[in-house]
Amino acid sequence: MIKSDFASKLKDPTLLVEKAFVAGQWITARNGATFDVIDPATGQKIAAVPDLEVEEVNSAITAAHRAQKPWAKLTAKDRASSLRTFYDLIVASADDLAIILTAEMGKPLQEAKTEVLYGAAYVEWFAEQAKRIDGDVIPGYQLDKHIFVVKRPVGVVGAITPWNFPSAMLARKLAPALAVGCSLVAKPAAQTPLSALALGVLAERAGLPSGVLNVVTSTDAAMVGSTFCTSELVRKISFTGSTNVGRILMRQGADQIKKLSLELGGNAPFIVFDDADIDAAVEGAVVAKFRNAGQTCVCANRIYVQSGVYKEFSEKLSRRVSGLKVGNGFAKGTEIGPLIDGNAVKKVKEHLENALSLGACVTVGGKSGEPGEQFFSPTVLVGVTSEMKLAREETFGPLAPLFSFDTEEEVIQMANDTEFGLAGYFFSRDLARIFRVAEDLETGMVGVNTGLISTEMAPFGGIKQSGMGREGSKYGADDYVNIKYVCLSVA
Ligand SMILES: NC(=O)C1=CN([C@@H]2O[C@H](COP(=O)(O)OP(=O)(O)OC[C@H]3O[C@@H](n4cnc5c(N)ncnc54)[C@H](OP(=O)(O)O)[C@@H]3O)[C@@H](O)[C@H]2O)C=CC1
Ligand SMILES: O=C(O)CCCC(=O)O
């Protein structure tokens, strides 16, 4: 049983479950194995969930397969109505879901609530879109030929989600999948299974038929991934996480030409031109860099500042960052929570030390271990160059490195000099430049004069090694349907 403090804060304690959700049943592992969920702020165990094995993952896939066709046979309006009920339940439980999220992942409570509502917005959006999975009629190539285009659900979807957005990343996969008539088996990150299980509770309450949504928990992510990829019943994998694991899934899915959506790592450039509103650029940089303590795939990883405003921008950003409050996500006013684990802290330290050894200087931050082992103070680095590790690798932590540049041409070349292409940001007031740079950045998403681009209404996704497919918007359903054309001969 859970005895942690956070559990006593819940208005509805039944949202906190320590069982997996398979075929409409809340199950333990057949061999009784469990694994611990740890609060990254305190290092304390907060729950233990089943450590499922391959047989149980296959049971979930079979259940999803059994449930899928009857679910797809419902009218779009009926599916929309179930999703709308699910959305209403998520919103009604947002405070509790945020508490669970902060406890397992560490982000500040207010940010956790924002994430829960952001995820819910995908459910609402796709409840609306469910009724708009329109086909087409194309003029025939002969007088008797009539060409109808219909969109059919791909079938069972295997979804693998990361720890950094444990609620929203699952919501934005399950919402389009269920809206178009797919069923889904979700595997949340082992570090953050509780938010996904809580969504399972609400899906059940919303009356989603058994097996339409399953949540399997396991420490053997490689087993779950390969089971999804090799099962003939799973027709599509939707993954958010590291580029490395994305590659593994692509290789494993190759034999069956598995349909894939991959939302992978980024190395986002954030550019401040001489003509920018510097105060707005500072605010944009704080959001783009320090949201979720820098643990977001769209976080600014490389901040390029034109030489004429470098001093002003670095001073203003350093001042602003020095005011950010670091602490336990449950503490009032906390803006930066802990990093997810010791490896995350190690990576930030490594990037920092490498940059310092090559000549960079810290203007603010640079310290770890306060108020706990997994905390890292928000840091600004000046004198950064492209030889440093942080220019090539995603830091995934609260480290803001400031590069200097002189010309637009030079910065576009620097910004695009990466195998990643997820998000890019820039600040400028020159309209012609805005169009040029927005077109020239090799990324799937561009924020102009803003550091926040995430919304359920826009197509989220990357190019190059940042992945394939889009989540959200009217395009988001495309990844979950097959296009079929019917050629009808009526003379
Ligand atoms: N695009 C993004 O949003 C994210 C990017 N990242 C990047 O990746 C780095 C490492 O983070 P990490 O959490 O290790 O990311 P991973 O890619 O390892 O984890 C993401 C998800 O994939 C699962 N997974 C791990 N290995 C496999 C496998 N062989 N087959 C199938 N699924 C697998 C994980 O399970 P489990 O947790 O149980 O191991 C988790 O559910 C970060 O520092 C960051 O740079 C990380 C998270 C999100
Ligand atoms: O880091 C991620 O994988 C998700 C990005 C969150 C968002 O802004 O949608």
Explained architecture:
With 491 residues, the chain is α/β, with parallel strands linked by helices. It is 38% helix and 22% strand. It is built from 15 helices and 22 strands. The chain has helices at 5-8, 54-73, 76-92, 94-105, 109-129, 168-180, 194-205, 221-230, 243-253, 278-290, 310-322, 342-357, 389-392, 408-416, 431-440, and strands spanning 20-22, 25-27, 34-38, 45-50, 136-139, 145-153, 156-160, 183-187, 213-215, 234-240, 259-263, 268-272, 300-306, 361-364, 379-384, 399-405, 420-421, 423-427, 445-448, 463-464, 467-468, 481-489. The strands form 6 sheets. The protein has a 7-stranded mixed sheet, with helices on both faces. A 6-stranded mixed sheet has the order 9-8-7-10-11-21, with helices on both faces. Helix 7 links the parallel strand 8 (183-187) and strand 9. Helix 4 packs across helix 5 (109-129) and helix 5 (109-129) packs parallel to helix 6. The chain is globular. Bound molecules: NADPH dihydro-nicotinamide-adenine-dinucleotide phosphate (NDP) and glutaric acid (GUA). Glutaric acid binds at residues 162, 164-165, 169, 240, 263, 296-298, 454, 460. Residues 160-164, 187, 189-191, 221-222, 225, 240-242, 245, 248-249, 263-265, 297, 394, 396 line the site of NADPH dihydro-nicotinamide-adenine-dinucleotide phosphate (NDP).
Main attributes of the structure:
single chain, seven-stranded mixed sheet, alpha/beta, binds glutaric acid, 491 residues, binds NADPH dihydro-nicotinamide-adenine-dinucleotide phosphate, six-stranded mixed sheet
